[in-house]
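Treating backbone geometry as a discrete language has practical consequences that deserve illustration. In the encoding step, the backbone of a single protein was reduced to a row of integers, each denoting a local shape. The amino acid sequence and the backbone structure tokens for this protein are reproduced below.
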Amino acid sequence: MVTAPRVTARRRIALLLAAVVAGAGLVAVDPIPRAAHAAACAPGAGVTVVVDLTAFGLGVQTGCRLGDPPTGLAALQGAGFAVTGTKRWGLAFVCRINGYPLPAAEPCVNTPPASAYWSYWHAVPGGTWSYSTLGASSYNPAQGTVEGWRFGSGQAPSISPP
């Protein structure tokens, strides 16, 4: 029959679409979008996020994700930072924050190299930075803490946790 290949092709497309939808459900998404604040959070009001862009000559930017974000990735995005993952792994690897590094320097196809990646840090206000042992999609920051990001070969953000 001539219709058999169409049914098979339709089934393949349906299975592919189902896999894409199921895979999308694995990405941690903040269920309640919140407005970002371009400063550190008031004590206990949320999670402060520090992004060190000094490698690009842009200084350090601080934002606040009010409330209790479910993941570090949700804190980063909720504090007003644009995030790009890799083509292969999606947001499991943060490749760009606010467009940096530029696509000419890092195409974001696969895992970034150990000499040029966004390192991820945690702290309490006024404390010291601690390198994250989990990815931002897996870590659940406590309300009142500070999340830090710095591009390079694994250095802590260049400012103390606010």
Summary: The mean pLDDT is 84. The chain is about 15% helix and 25% strand. The CA atoms of residues 5 and 104 lie 42 Å apart.
